[in-house]
Amino acid sequence: MLPSSIWLEKRPGHGEDAQPLKVLNENFGTVLAVFDGLGGAGAARIEQPGEEATSEARLAALYLRELTKDYFCNLQSSNDLSHINVSLSEFLRKRLKSYSSTLPRVESKLKSSLSKYLPSTGCILIHNTVEAEPVLNALWAGDSRAYRVRIDGALECLTPDHVKHRSHQSKLDYFVSNGDATMTNCISASHDFELDRTEGHFLAKDTIVAFVCSDGAFGAFKDHLRFELAVLKTLIGSTPGEEFEQYISEHRSDDVSFQAIFIQDPEQYREAIEKRLGLLERAIDGDKDPVAFFSVVSETFPFVLGSIEHSLRSENSPSLADVKKKESGMKISLPSILIGASLGLGASAIALLTLTNLATRNQMSPLEQLLQTTMAQTVAVISAQEAPRLGLATSALAQAEDALASASTDMEARQLERDQLLQDQEQATSALAQAEDALASATSGAYTAQQTLDQRQLEQERILEQILIQIQAAQTLTEQALREE
């Protein structure tokens, strides 16, 4: 059986993943959450009296866990979930800023736009059971993820990562861990953020199990296919839960947090899961069974496309729809092309063609190479009747690719402008800090000089008073002497 909770630290007592959280609230249902402190942006050490020094990343994850627990334990009604990402984001921002101001932070002389106070990723899954039809919703920031296993046996990721991909990376990298990719959205006390929210609801009745996890969990596997294979095997008992946790422990490169909720009995859907497992096992060896690989990738394709659009939006670039309207001049949407271009294998081939065109050709990952190989083998079996429609769709997709390339160029130019503005702002901030230090030093010097002057004036007044007393005494003696004569 799949473990309900996993928590592993590379260095016990120094990990930057908080313990996974599970909250039961009778007003609306169950909440799962994980928080993974960002060790790069939050590497600064905090030293508190009587305590061992710890990183801001670790403190962030631990404090966010407690804040989230407090928030959901006291949430009164399921009606509060309508704008939960906005209200929870505001709650966390206020508490983090207040907490950050109490920490004995030592400012580093090395300034970086990547440095943040109390930075962390986070992912929260809400199982709302009080509605007429129970649903799942996810809130997240960064690359911690929410997944569910559907009743058809497929593992579905619900949360596209908030990461900025490098120019040589393909959007197909959403199949695997993002490594040290830069976050476009994360929780912190020093930068604005807002938790993202899944669009719409995922029906609980269509779900066997759902879970949240940090990147240390899925990053222990080579790719999404192998992660899904391990989850499904463990879910139906083909692999013991202890082995699943042991594999992650041995292959992870980071701390791990994982929390699951079982919604339906996996045994009721064993047949569907075993069918999916067979497909996955054949798909992993794609050269021998390209159709199986092709079918599995087609299942994941909507998530990848959504991730691409989400990434473009998060980097201030036009959405796919905007690109279609403003740049390419196409009169039909990309999803419509994918649906209507051809039937059966034809439609699937176009999906693969889209994924491959989105990849960078100079540096392809093994997964991209496998996709291209599979696409070529699949297209070869498309009937001649589908060729005209496939040609039309290919032409339209080429236009979309040109539009996306133009949007990407514009995005890079805007990023350069933003980086320059950040650099100018940092320089201005540094100059202002130096000016403030100089002013404080001058003020202190003036205050010291004034004190010295006041002391000298008092001394002069005392001396003058003594002289006057002596003069008066001399006058008195003189008068007495004159009277005696």
Summarize the structure.
With 485 residues, the protein is α+β, with helices and mostly antiparallel strands. The protein contains twelve helices and 15 strands.
Structure description:
This protein is an alpha+beta fold and 485 residues long. The chain folds into 2 domains: 1-106 and 116-281, 4-Layer Sandwich (Phosphatase 2c, domain 1); 285-419, no CATH class. It has 12 helices and 15 strands. The strands form 4 sheets. Strands 2, 3, 6, 7, 12 and 13 form a 6-stranded antiparallel sheet that branches. It has a 5-stranded antiparallel sheet with strand order 1-15-14-8-9. Mean pLDDT is 77; it is low at 166-174 and 301-363.
- SSE arrangement, N to C: EEEEEHHEEEEEEEEEHHHEHHHHHHH
Note the gap between the termini: 126 Å
3D shape: elongated
Number of strands: 15
The CATH architecture of the largest domain is: 4-Layer Sandwich
Radius of gyration: 33 Å
Which stretches are poorly predicted, pLDDT < 50 over at least 5 residues? Answer: 166-174, 301-363
**Global mean pLDDT:** 77
Query: Major beta sheet, specifics?
Result: 6 strands, antiparallel
Determine the structural class based on helices, strands and strand pairing: alpha+beta
Helical fraction: 40-55%
CATH topology descriptor of the largest domain: Phosphatase 2c, domain 1
